[in-house]
Specification:
alpha/beta; eight-stranded mixed sheet; globular; 287 residues; single chain; Rossmann fold
Amino acid sequence: MPIFTSYDGTELAYHVGGEGEPLVCLPGGAMRASAYLGDLGGLTAGRRLVLLDLRGTGDSRVPADASTYRVDHQVADVEALRVHLDPDRMDVLAHSAGAGLALLYAAAHPARLRRLALITPACWAVGLDPAPERGLEVVRGRAGGEPYDAAIAAYERNLEVLAAGGTPTPEDWSRTMPLAYGRWDEEVRAHIDAGARQKNLPAGAAFAGPGAFDPPATRAALRRLAAEVLVLAGELDGYPTAALAAELAGLFPRGTTDVQPGGAHFPWIDDPERFAGRVERFLATGA
């Protein structure tokens, strides 16, 4: 397990699998250890995956200053990893909340990115409205049996809490997890169970804390980004919806969108072959 030292002396770990050019992978959560990414549907067949454990997660050390969990401080961790790996430019894949970190990195270090794959990305960094009613429409389309009916009811309750100015608990969100997958089987249940043990919840709460994002400045910077960008959404995902993913892709001069049929928030679990093939094509050709 390789380790490098970031800007503030925190030792960070990353996990390597596969052969070929490196692909730096930023996990979501927020602040979930990178183990849940696995081999990303078999991307290790053609790429050397570099799965970063964000500070305070997985095998990385807990920082001395907890305020550095905020995502804008972690941009320097990604740049420290690039310097450690020593490429002039790198390809980056980011999942879910990890997209916030990737977008801030792209804005701060545009010349260091070659291609960027945003997988079912959170859009907080650029201030795009998640339109809860659109997500609710998508997930309601899965009604008609368990575990989806119970998960949809939990999703609806969580939106009501948010609309009233409250914050759903992790347990509240856990009840919606069947909706995060395009299928329901033993592999999916094991993936959900593992996820509960992989998050640093206090760090996750700080990740998008006050002051973390400046959407107008980030959007302006991304409009000048030369790197090719793929925004991959899942057809069944309530956030981001396909429409929101297309809106995000439109912020980039060289952005493109793909919607995985039958996919939800973890598309490499839902259809590994389709997912890996699409991402491989993008990394190879930019299309």
